[in-house]
Amino acid sequence: MSKESKILLIGASIWYFGEGLFGPLIAYFSEQIGGTILDLSWAWAIYLVVYGLLSIFFGVISDRNLDKGKLMVFGYGLNALFTFAYIFVSTPTMLFLVQAGLGIAAAMATPTWNALYDEASESAVDGTSWGMYEGIQSIIKAITIVLGAFIVTLLSFKALFIAMGCIQTFATIYQAKILYVRKKTF
Hints:
Elements (H helix, E strand, L loop, with lengths): L2 H18 L4 H8 L4 H28 L3 H18 L6 H29 L5 H29 L2 H19 L1 H9 L1
Helix pairs in contact: 1-5, 1-6, 1-7, 1-8, 3-5, 4-5, 4-7
């Protein structure tokens, strides 16, 4: 596995550790801020539409004239910022705005991460590389879903969002290592 692949895989794993803490707790959180099942569905739909439309946009422009590494790192950083924004969510409308922001961030980070990981993978072991990614993320999400529930139960959603944001900020800093490694190889 190349140095770039390792950086991307470890950075994504750290990020998923932060993201996974919230997992299915968003339904309970939505209820806590006065949201209904319909509000939660709208929040998720807003995220998916924004993410879907902008993934196409950022994917196309990153292939034309943007540095994929910089766009990915910026997306990770923006995601951490919007994760911290959950602290201030007190209404379903505010949740919609945070979800839209997270959709924008994911659209910047995810397609570019995928392209960079694909470039960094050794073509003879693509199945291994993608298997490592999928397997590690699934295990991390399983662990963090339970850990997130413990944090909310023992502390609060605010503590959870601070932990998530801090972990995602660390993941962003770690992923930024790719900019240095790519600069040396290109």
